[in-house]
């Protein structure tokens, strides 16, 4: 007897759509059965032909916990994720105090967060200028990947020169790890920013001009060359422009072991939104032109951009203040709760198959971030993580629906169709019709499979 059967679903895998039922035993998927199965189970859910996707994996979030809990915390953020159909996140090592750069900090972070998590979670490790001797121990802890900046961040999370990047890549290659990069060139941005601030040019337009596409492109090209030379797997975070995607596409054809992501905000917003609406649309790299944003979609469709991540990066409302100019205001957009519905709507609008969503938001992130034998697909023996999406529900994102600590987002006011209605984590329903029904502490740490 199964524990749970979800009947009558339109099951969406990364490869196909088929009518069926999903049977669960304990925490695992036990079988895929016909839609009208009469197999016995302790409980049933009638999907009523809703779409059933593998649980979504958001591989780039900043939940700010521990250390910056006035911006976000693990409890609020993982509940928001559950409502949005996300069953696993990979949390970034910065915007933590201290940043996650060694084994002791990894263990402390896990200890502090494990009773707060409503969904499963994994950790990025940091690769900064003085912790190259800690990469091995972080890998042993089970970090999925290592995050580095080539642009200045905060003083406790230093950016790397290319010499250190090269050394770090050689070390990460030894355990077949993954190095992820925020690709914007330090030299260009810091020069532009300093010059603009010095002459009092701190408007929204000045912020955009200080971070040109060339800065992103130069950084990406450099990482491509280092990966080509050393052979380490590299992942490019938040690609903002089609010319950057084109460079990545070429590198893939040339055999460079490179993967890349973009975020919903680069696909559905553009520089005009930032110039008109202001700091809630500030991010780095910045939003690009309308034409660039539209052209980025084709790289999602053709697989150059392997996955979609939210880069959920919240802050306190006062940190978005523009009173001291656009450079000082917080750069980051909250989106972990709304990525799926926005992407579902946009794909449907374009007439694209929902299998693309299962590929870029479930299977590929599982594969790239080392959880491919238990997550990301609907296969017997895998974790029973899945989400039902009702393709007919029309929605508008409203502030009071957001479960974030700070209920602010560029996506407020966005309208679409198709909404997650039921999220299941390892066999347990954790969110249903906009309400969290899971429990704090049910989320587990996922360590990279080596
Ligand atoms: Zn980020």
Automatic annotation (TrEMBL):
InterPro entries (UniProt xref): Allantoinase, Amidohydro-rel, DHOase/Allantoinase_Hydrolase, Dihydroorotase_CS, Metal-dep_hydrolase_composite, Metal_Hydrolase
| Entry cofactors | Zn(2+)
Signal peptide bounds: none
Q: Which GO terms describe its molecular function?
A: allantoinase activity
Q: What is its EC number?
A: 3.5.2.5
Pathway annotation: Nitrogen metabolism; (S)-allantoin degradation; allantoate from (S)-allantoin: step 1/1
Would you tell me the protein name for this molecule? allantoinase
